[in-house]
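Entry
Fold in token form

___
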Amino acid sequence: MTDFRRWLLLLVVSFLTIPAHCQTTTFSREWQFAHYLADKDATDEAMFVLQAFDKQLLTTSQRDSLAYLTGWLAYGAKSLGEASDHLLKVSEASPFYTKSQYFGAYCLAFQQKRDSARAVMQHLPAPDSTMLELRAFERAGLALLQRQYGCYDILRKQFSYSSYALSAEEKRMDMYGQGLRAQKRRSPALAGLLSAAVPGLGKLYAGKTKQGIAAFLPVLTMGLLAWEGYRKDGPTSLRFLGFGSLFTVFYIGNIWGSTLAVKVRRDEFNRGYDNKILFDMHIPLRNLLNR
């Protein structure tokens, strides 16, 4: 009876350990297969393989690997919200931690979640001098995105301009900082007042010369026709009322258009610089971490 119990216990232990071993082997094989599919740009197929895993049965290391590859696939598919969610779940013990943190923070910055990106970037791993400089560069780029020029000036002191992976982008980042600071700050309210005084002048102030001329001519025309109707036919004439109404519409529209032109020009300027900054923030990540 004792021998039978010992044999039964060994059987149970074997039964419990084999599935765990099999699962480890299965996960490794399936994960590598998903990685292979990802390298072949078969993103949907790779995601299908990864979604088949039961996370409750995985070890911490396996969950890290799963989160990394899922996030990386989402990043490649430009689903940056999903990418940052998965990449930032990778734990510090994982070999994918550094890459996941840097790309996860970049995804947040790209999504305009700038405060969240800053919180992550402050704690980015930097095991050597190159990574220290990369961390400073990413944080400096984010500071420009937030128009925090004092913070940028502090961080750029860590630029060496000597690393092949960073020097060109560091120099361009300095140019972006100079361009942003040199921006002429135009007031939408002032543009409206100028156009109220002289139709089209507000758009000239906003830098929209052709639009300013185009706004001036119809207002002037309607004003002259309304005055002609008033002078010849009186204030109750249909010609005066009709052209007077058109003049009022064009005049008010010219004022509103001028205020809007300043806002549009400012948004175009900022968006153009933001796109340049984000592009150059990405290049060193790709050169140093995407290997």
Residues 4-18 have pLDDT under 50 and may be disordered. Residues 13 and 207 are 79 Å apart (CA to CA). The chain has 13 helices and no strands.
